[in-house]
Every structure is written in structure tokens, then in C-alpha cells.
Amino acid sequence: MSSRIKMPVTDVWSSRLLAGVAVLTVVHLLSGATWAASVAQLLLAGFLVLGWTRFSLMAHMLALACVVVSLFAMWRLPYPGIVLYEAANGFVFLAAFMAALAVLRLPAYRSRLIRRCGQSLLLQPPTWRYPMLSLGSTLFGIVLNFGVLNLFMSMIDKANTLGSAQGRVWLQEVRRRRMLLATLRGFTLAPLVSPLGIGVAVVLGNLESLTWGQLFPYVLASAVTLFLLGWACDQIAGPRPSASAAGNERPSLIPLVAFSLLLLALVLLVFALATILSLRLPQAVVIGVPLGAWVWLAWQCRDIGHAGVWSATALLTRRLPDVLGGIGNEVVALGSGAYLGYLSVALLNPAQLDGVASLLIAAGNWLPALALLLIVVLAQIGVNPIISVTFLTSMVAQVGLEGVSLPLLASAMLVGWSLTMVSSPFTAAMMIMSRFTGITAGQIGLRWNGAFLAASLMMAAVLFRLAS
User: Fold this and answer.
1) CA pair distance 397, 386, nearest whole angstrom
2) Which of 8, 9, 203, 432 has the fewest CB atoms within 10 Å distance of its CB?
3) How far apart are CA 267 and CA 367, in angstroms?
């Protein structure tokens, strides 16, 4: 008898519909067939209906907001069909994007290399534990997305025993908090620096004149700054390690180097497909990531025969419902955010559009810092950063700001997005952390991360203003 829990029929069909959305999105990208985009929208609607009972309250509220704003658009706009179709295409693309990233979890959770990496990170001496955990969760987050939080937090609790703290409960709690914060802060850097991240997909998708090559130096410098600030806050907040603990032998980092090379190969595959197929980078991710996941699976199954090709295909087909079954809330949150952001711009009349454009132009060199602060502040009252970033990038694309560095502005938005993930109680990362620790998301954001957030906002505002 199989040990696997059988999924309900509705969940299986919901996952199949999401897989169909991803496949049809690829067909549309490669052929430009409008029928594929239309059918993908219908399948997405079916996915939302079948998965409704499993969605969180936040997902329900966002989906209902999409319905309400759509009805308002149908009443307000003279030709609403075209606008709603384009907004739905944005929802479909992000659903396919999330499905593509989720496929990576299957070979990742089966990988012995990842298990060795996790143990190597957790066994680091106290002085190096924060940077190693932070960088490790950044790398793992590129592949596992939100799954890295559950994985790392489980490993931390297993490794952080009372015995390892010499029976001192307070030390065990301090270690747990520091390691959890290192994981959370590192994870929030993944969408900032990864070309496979959802934030980069939204920014590059709306700002078509911007390329990853132009954006990368700015986001890399921003990520390094946030990493160093986080490390400094950890060193200030935590007790000094004893001489005996500081002198412990560091475990080998060879598994982490091997994993980094694996990620590099995946990124190069995506860039190669973008060049060969003349696609935007986010579009190439939808094709290249599932292909890379299948090749990774085939490598794991290579000893079975036929170079693991048939075994990898069978495994991927059989386990796909399990992989896609748990990302419904993420799909709704990100897709509806893009949908609402697009419609909010479309609903502005010419006078309002000119007013917003005038505000953006008047901000001048302060615009990157103000955009960053606006994204973080709105996130504290429940406005998902994908809504604010979609709105801002859509406005910038229509206005065409002169005298403002587009890569600098885009990187400021991504930094703001990253900081919302360590501060806003409404983000998925904070909700996962709260559920695992038993501490409210507000306490984690303000008590645990308050000093880091304040230092990051001040530093980012100053640096972006100077860079402007």
C-alpha cells in the first residue's frame, strides 16, 4: 500500500489546470497564438474556482477585489474588453511563472547535495553562522522559493538542541532567533538579485526598455549593502561567542560551491534560451526553469537506465499535482496584484494620469528613494508590493521620465519589495515565519527586525539619493 496521501479529485484537477496554464503560456510565447492565451485565461478561471476552498483569507480578499475592480472597469471604461484581456494576460503569465519555479522543488527536495549543503551551513562556527545561513538561504531561495523557509527552519530546530547550548535555555532561544533571522533576511535577497525572481519579472515585464544587464550592478550593490547591514545588526544584538566556540573547525563548503555551480548552469540555460528564442528574460524563465528541473531529475535517475530520461518524465508527471497543489495562495497573491496594478493605471483618466506624471517628474532625483519608502509603507497596511510596483512601473513606462536613471529607479523598487518581506505582517514570508515560531508577524517585523529595517531604510534612502 502506498504511503502517499491521496489528493482530493478537485485538488488534482486544480493542479492540472495550473499546469495547462503554464503549457499554453509557453505555446503563446513561442508561437504568438492568441487562442493559446485565451484558453489559458479560461483554465486559470477554472483553477481559481476549483481551488477556492483551499485559499487563505488574504487570497479570497484579493480575488474578490479583482472581481470588484473588473466590474468597475466594465462600467467606467468605454472599451473594457481589451483592458481586461491584457490584465488577465498578466495574471496568467505570473501564474505560469510561479508554476515553473515550483517545478524546481521536486528535484531539489530529492537532492542529496542540498541536504549536505544544509548540514554544512548549520554546523558553521557562531562567527560565520549568520553570513553562511544568509547566503545559503539566498541561493536555496532561488530554487525553492518559499519552500526554503520551511526547510531551513526545520533544520534549525533539529540542530539547535538544548545539549548544543550546554543546557542554557536562554542561549538556545538566542541562537534560534539569530539563525531564523539570518534565514529570513537571506531569503528576501533572492528576489532582489536573482534573474529568476518574481520581482525582476514584474519590473522587466513592465519596463521593456530595461535589461537585466543594466539592472544587475544596482541590485547587486543593494543586496551587498543589505547583507552587510543584517550581519552588523546580528553581531550587535547577539552575545559574543566563547573562545572555544569561535575556534571550532569549520565544515567543508564544497557542497555549497557545487550547488552554486548548479544554479549558475540553470541561469545560463535561461539566458541562452532568451538569446536563441529572442525572448524577454522573464519569458525565458517560464521555459528554461522546467527544462532545467527535468534535466536535474534525469541526472538523479541516470542509473535507472536510458540516461534517466524516461524515469524523470514519469516522476515529473506523477508528482506534478503534489508540487503545484501547494502554491495556490502564492499564485492568487502575485497574479491578482499584477491584475489590480494594471487596471488601476487603466482606470486613471487623462487628467489624473497627468497629475501622477507631474508628481513623478517633480520628485526628480528623490524619486528612487521616495518610491522605495512608498512601497514599504503601503505594505504595512496590506498593499502587496506587487500592486505598488506594478502601478509605479506602469506609470513610469507611460510617462517616460527623463533625467531619472531607469535602472536606479527599478532597483530602488526591488529593494523596497525586499524590505517589505522582512517587515510587513501581510507578506507570505512573515506569515510562514509567524506560523513556525508562534510569534505574531507584527512582533517579528518590529521587535526582531525593527533595528535592521530602520537602518536599511535610512541607508537606502541616503545611497539612492546620492546615486541619483
Assistant:
1) 16
2) 9
3) 31
pTM to 2 decimals?
Answer: 0.81
Q: Distance between CA 75 and CA 420 in Å, rounded?
A: 34
Distance separating alpha carbons of residues 445 and 420, to the nearest angstrom = 9
Closest CA to 327 of 112, 176, 197, 145: 145
Please provide the DSSP assignment of 133-153 as one string: HHHHHHHHHHHHTTHHHHHHH
For residues 151 and 66, give the distance between their C-alpha atoms in angstroms, rounded to a whole number.
33
Alpha-carbon distance of 220 to 8, in angstroms, equals 44
| Torsion, Cα of 216, 219, 222, 226 (10° steps) | -120
Output the nine-digit C-alpha cell for 466.
546620492
Q: Where are the alpha helices (DSSP H) in 207-327?
A: 212-237, 243-246, 254-276, 281-300, 309-324
User: Residue 33 is placed in which grid cell?
Assistant: 497564438
Gyration radius (Cα) of the chain, Å: 22
Question: Residue 209: CB partners within 8 Å, gap ≥ 6?
Answer: 406
pLDDT tens, position by position, 351-395: 666 677 677 777 777 888 889 999 999 998 888 888 889 888 888
The DSSP secondary-structure symbol of 366 reads G
Q: What DSSP element (H or E) covers 176?
A: helix 169-193
